Amino acid sequence: MKSLEELKAIRDRVRSSVTMREGNEGNIRVVVGMATCGIAAGARPVLAAFTEEVAKRNLTNVTVTQTGCIGICQYEPVVEVFESDGTKTTYIKMTPEKVPQIVADHLVNGNVVTEYTIGNL
Amino acid sequence: MYRAHVLVCGGTGCTSSGSQQIIDKLESELKDKGLDSEVKVVKTGCFGLCALGPIMIVYPEGCFYSEVKVEDIPEIVEEHLLKGRIVKRLLYTETVAEDQVKSLNDTNFYAKQQRIALRNCGVINPEVIDEYIAVDGYMALGKVLTEMTPKEVIDVIKDSGLRGRGGGGFPTGLKWSFVVDGDQKYVACNADEGDPGAFMDRSVLEGDPHVVLEAMAIAAYAIGANQGYIYVRAEYPIAVKRLQIAIGQAREYGLLGNNIFGTDFCFDIELRLGAGAFVCGEETALMTSIEGHRGEPRPRPPFPAVKGLFGKPTVLNNVETYANIPRIILNGADWFKSIGTEKSKGTKVFALGGKIKNTGLVEVPMGTTLREIVEEIGGGIPNGKKFKAAQTGGPSGGCIPAEHLDVPIDYDNLIAIGSMMGSGGLIVMDEDTCMVDIAKFFLEFTVDESCGKCTPCRVGTKRLYEMLDKITRGQGTLEDLDKMEQLCYYIKENSLCGLGQSAPNPVLSTLRYFRDEYIAHVVDKTCPAGVCKHLMKFTIVADKCKGCTLCARNCPVGAIDGKVKEPHVINQDKCIKCGACIEKCKFGAIIKA
Fold it and tell me: Quick check: is A103 in a domain?
């Protein structure tokens, strides 16, 4: 270790590996429906795409997690985004291809991608 | 990138209840389901709630699974990690409220705790230096080396009011400032935690070994030392292994070694394994042992700050003391001073044990009352029994009776009520505990552990033990009680080191608060708690006995006679008072008095 900057660089690099363990208040939660219906409709690649995209952008305020059946099986894969103020956005018929746009527009810039939401049926 | 972290406790408590097998099973199940690149398994240090081990926390949800078995793992993987359905039946019951999963920090056990020394235990993987760095590890050392003079470091520690956590409570900054000039100086770490029932140092070493290395380097910079020694007992194999890993990683990163952070500061640490003698926790005996001699104390002065290891000026601090240092450097003395009481700053870790529901490690601000620790954090006494006393400070401490439950715990208050902080062992006793027997238990320990160098301790503790033994046999006299008290003061005043000087404390404090129990043993020849076997008699109530022969068949010494369907009788000469008959009797016909 030759300098404090070097240590700080290591810290910043590894920081994201432990932030998940500090509780998720104030965070954005991306919840992927992963019941049988969701998995059958292809929720796993969607979940993987979210995890990958969030990591790529180093979004430490976003957690990606999964849940059971939301009850709208015909629209699976369903992804819900919960923001810290309690607002919920429901995206339906998700594919891995749609993920980068949602991450960029919604999670980073705060603009809901309306065309993929359930309200756009 | 992992979307979930599964933290499994790898402390000694959970390891002995099978956490390693759980980790293995978890890893193989995750692999089978193809989740191993999404879910990370982290083996951490102790979470503190040892009574409920093995413990597992799943993030991001923060689900706290307790008493996990290997058979539960497929369900957790399939339901929770794959499908996202929390396995409610395995959750720690206190975290489930009205079908909602509560945060662990809202449970009684954690709500009143404030973790400074234990802040990383149960959070990071102690075998990976990057995880320690991720939580600001080694930043305090960096700050000290690049921004502060040694004197400024000592001033911050002095100003913080930090006192030694190993038992004595001596102000740490003052200790550092006493180190005299010299060509060679040392820092040392006392990890020879020997009090029966205390395991906080072990947990820090197992859960966060780097914090000790970092703090020792800071101390070394402050006093001008270039070599450190950690004296850890060989009976702590997990702690030893993780320390070795940590030292290796710190050397690799250049956080130990030459020219740390590009400065002139050079420092390295070596481990020394102790064989587990209690006296080696005493500072002069510990240093003698590091030097390779038989662990025996020597008179002070000279104090280690003047003449310590190998005759050179040395700073010796306890593990928990060190664990506070980096945070004080980073957050400042004012932050630390704002926690605790007027003369005892910061927090203290207690090892809760004995007759209490939540056995484990708790860290609370100084000034927390014993009642809060026992009733709220500890969850009270199991089986509806009544609190009788709490023993603090191990064999050097004393018993605190129920009347002092509301005393705010700090160094000075504990001494005022005849006990001491010690290293922080806290053993809770209920109405079934005999206080004479407890005093005898601790004296038996000190008799075993006295090194024998000075007569008051070597012979005095033995005589004291014999008097206690005599009392528990119902052969004591009131005169013995006075003699015992005199002997206690004699041992305290004349022993060479802390071991002997504090060995009579358990006797003195029980005599002070539970003299009536001693008198019951001596005058009435009874043991009110029903513990001392020589003072007990088992008898069969003829009216209640149905003559089922169950007791006679279960008596290991054949002391019960009687014909079928006729009342049985216990032969008092043969009876060893094991209580097997009482347990077996279905009619409540056998009484103990």
Answer: yes
Rounded to the nearest 10 degrees, the angle between the axes of helix B209-223 and helix B237-252 is 60
Residues 38-57, chain B, touching A (beta carbon < 8 A): 38, 57
A88-119 exposure pattern, b = at least 16 Cβ within 10 A, e = fewer: ebbbbbbebebbeebbeebbeeeebbeebbee
- Give chain A's domain count: 1
Q: Which fold has domain B347-430?
A: Ubiquitin-like (UB roll) (3.10.20)
Q: Is residue A17 part of a domain?
A: no
- Taking CB atoms and an 8 Å limit, are A21 and B7 in contact across chains? yes
Of B3, B59, B62, nearest to A51 by CB-CB distance is B3
> Under an 8 A CB cutoff, do B82 and A10 touch?
no
B133–A24 CB contact, under 8 Å: no
Average pLDDT, chain B: 93
Q: Which residues of B touch A68 (CB under 8 A)?
A: 83-85
A23 vs B138: CB contact, 8 Å cut-off?
Answer: no
Q: What is the pLDDT of residues B63-102, one digit of tens each?
A: 899 999 999 999 999 989 988 888 988 998 887 766 666 7
Architecture label for domain B435-524: Up-down Bundle (1.20)
What does the pLDDT look like over B20-78, one tens digit per residue? 999 999 999 999 988 898 899 999 999 889 989 899 999 888 889 999 999 999 999 99
Query: In 3-state terms, chain A is what percent helix, strand and coil (to 5)?
Result: 50, 15, 35
- Model confidence pLDDT, tens digit, residues B323-376: 999 999 999 999 999 999 999 999 999 999 999 999 999 999 999 999 999 999
Element (H, E) at B156: helix B150-160
Percent of chain A residues topping a pLDDT of 90:
43
What residue in A sits closest to B4 (Cα-Cα)?
A65
Chain B residue with minimum CA distance to A60: B1
In A, minimum Cα distance to B33 occurs at: A44
Domain ranges of chain B: 4-111, 129-336, 347-430, 435-524, 537-592
The pLDDT tens digits for A86-97 are 889 999 999 999
Residues of B in contact with A15 (CB under 8 A): 134
What is the per-residue burial (b if ≥16 Cβ within 10 Å, else e) of B389-425?
bbbbbbbbbbbbbeebbebbbbbebbeebbbbbbbbb
- Is residue A7 one of the residues assigned to a domain? no
Residue A61 lies in a domain: yes
Higher pLDDT, A35 or B572: B572
Domain B129-336 falls in which CATH fold? Rossmann fold (3.40.50)
Q: Which residue of A has its CA nearest to B81?
A: A66
Does B195 score more than 90 pLDDT? no
Q: Assign domain B4-111 to its CATH architecture.
A: 3-Layer(aba) Sandwich (3.40)
CATH match of B537-592 with 3.30.110.40: no
